[in-house]
Design brief:
single chain, 92 residues, mainly alpha, two-stranded antiparallel ribbon, 7% strand
């Protein structure tokens, strides 16, 4: 997945540099702005990738992971060993 994102970011940076080069040759502000926006999107894409990677590690190491949440959200019913969601259990 990293290689795909890295390839996309490299392509975006190359496109941004090409736009900025054309902007300098033609003295056009709009092309320079477009190049800046494309380069900004490449930077934002990398930032989101690294932030999501750290967030996934945080969720995986959390004490309330999916296994714990499944256990918390179920309860034994009538002592017969079957599991049911807490909202199905009748109140005493």
């Amino acid at each position: 997945m990293l290689l795909l994102i890295l390839a996309i970011v490299i392509a975006l940076v190359a496109w941004a540099l090409r736009l900025m080069e054309q902007a300098v040759k033609g003295q056009e502000f709009s092309l320079m702005l477009a190049g800046f926006l494309v380069a900004s999107s490449a930077a934002a894409m990398m930032a989101v990738y690294f932030l999501m990677g750290n967030y996934m590690v945080y969720l995986h190491q959390s004490p309330l992971s999916a296994a714990h949440l499944d256990y918390i959200s179920t309860a034994f019913v009538d002592g017969d060993g079957t599991m049911a969601p807490l909202w199905l259990v009748e109140a005493d």
